[in-house]
UniProtKB/TrEMBL annotation:
Sequence ranges assigned to domain HTH deoR-type in this UniProt record: 6-61
SMART domains associated with the record: DeoRC, HTH_DEOR
Function statement: Repressor of the lactose catabolism operon. Galactose-6-phosphate is the inducer.
GO molecular function: DNA-binding transcription factor activity
SUPFAM superfamilies the record matches: NagB/RpiA/CoA transferase-like, Winged helix' DNA-binding domain
Protein name: Lactose phosphotransferase system repressor
Record-linked InterPro entries: Carb_Metab_HTH_regulators, DeoR-like_C, DeoR_HTH, NagB/RpiA_transferase-like, WH-like_DNA-bd_sf, WH_DNA-bd_sf
Keyword annotations of the record: Repressor, Transcription, Transcription regulation
Length: 256
C-alpha cells in the first residue's frame, strides 16, 4: 500500500476506535482487508502518537484535546470495577463534613455510595451528581453555576471556578482522563481543567478515583500532580508494581 492509503487506514482505525470505544485486530484486518500484522503496526504507530492505548488483541482511544468520551459512553465501560472503586473511595470519607464530588461516572458512583445517615454538604459541578443526591434528606447539595457541557452534563468557566474558590472543602473526590507519574493528572478541556484545579486548591484532602486504563494516559491539560493526593483508588487491573511506583510519590494506592 502507498503512504496515502496507510494514513487513510490509520485515520479509519482511529475513527472506529472513537466511535465504538475500542477496536479488535481481527475485525480491523477484515474491515480494511489487510494482514493482522499490518493492523498491529498501525496500532503501534497510533499508540506512539498518543492516540490509542493497545490492549491484548486490540486498542482503545485515548482522550485528547480533539476527542472526549461522553458521560453516556462512560456508564457502559468497566462498570463493576468503577462500582468497587466508588465503594472503597466512599469508605475513606472519615469525618469530612464538606465534600467535593467531580464530574464523571465514577464520581457519580461515589456520590451514590456516600452515607445518607449523617449530615453532609456536597459541592459539585455535575448535574448527574446533584440529581443523585437531591433527595437525600441529610445532604445539602451545592451545584456550581456556569456553562453546561452537553457531553458530560457538568458546569465550567469562571462562574464555577469563582464559586468554588470561595469554599474550604474537607475532602475532594477527583477524577481525570489520564494520570501518569511524569505528567500528573490531565484532562482534554481547559475549562474542565480549571474547575478541577480549583477543587484541588480548595480541598484539605484529595482522593483520586479511576479505573486502571487511566494510568499512563496523558491528555491536553494538566491540573494536579500525583503527590497532591492522599489516596488513589483504582481496580486490580493496575499492576502491583506500578501501584508501588505511584505510592512512592506520596499517595496510598488502593486496588479493589
Amino acid at each position: 500500500m502507498c503512504a496515502v492509503d496507510t494514513e487513510e487506514r490509520r485515520r479509519g482505525i482511529l475513527d472506529t476506535a472513537r466511535r465504538d470505544g475500542s477496536v479488535d485486530v481481527n475485525r480491523l484486518a477484515d474491515l480494511f482487508r489487510v494482514a493482522k500484522e499490518t493492523i498491529r503496526r498501525d496500532l503501534h504507530t497510533l499508540e506512539e502518537h498518543g492516540l490509542v492505548r493497545r490492549t491484548h488483541g486490540g486498542a482503545y482511544p485515548v482522550e485528547s484535546a480533539g476527542f472526549e468520551t461522553t458521560l453516556a459512553t462512560r456508564t457502559t465501560r468497566h462498570v463493576p470495577q468503577k462500582s468497587r472503586i466508588a465503594a472503597a473511595a466512599a469508605d475513606l470519607l472519615g469525618d469530612a463534613e464538606t465534600v467535593f464530588v467531580d464530574e464523571g461516572f465514577t464520581p457519580q458512583l461515589v456520590a451514590e455510595a456516600l452515607p445518607r445517615d449523617r449530615p453532609l454538604t456536597v459541592v459539585t459541578a455535575s448535574l448527574a451528581v446533584a440529581t443523585v443526591l437531591a433527595d437525600a434528606e441529610k445532604t445539602a447539595v451545592l451545584l456550581l453555576g456556569g456553562r453546561v457541557r452537553g457531553g458530560t452534563l457538568a458546569t465550567v468557566d469562571h462562574w464555577a471556578t469563582r464559586m468554588l474558590a470561595g469554599f474550604v472543602i474537607d475532602l475532594a473526590y477527583v477524577g481525570a482522563n489520564g494520570i501518569s507519574r511524569e505528567y500528573g493528572l490531565t484532562t482534554p478541556d481547559p475549562a474542565v481543567s480549571d474547575v478541577k484545579a480549583q477543587a484541588v486548591r480548595s480541598a484539605r484532602r484529595r482522593i483520586f478515583t479511576g479505573v486502571h486504563t487511566k494510568f499512563g494516559a496523558v491528555s491536553f491539560c494538566r491540573f494536579a500532580e500525583v503527590g497532591d493526593f492522599e489516596a488513589i483508588v483504582t481496580d486490580a487491573g493496575l499492576p502491583s508494581a506500578e501501584a508501588q511506583r505511584y505510592s512512592l510519590m506520596g499517595p496510598q494506592v488502593i486496588r479493589v
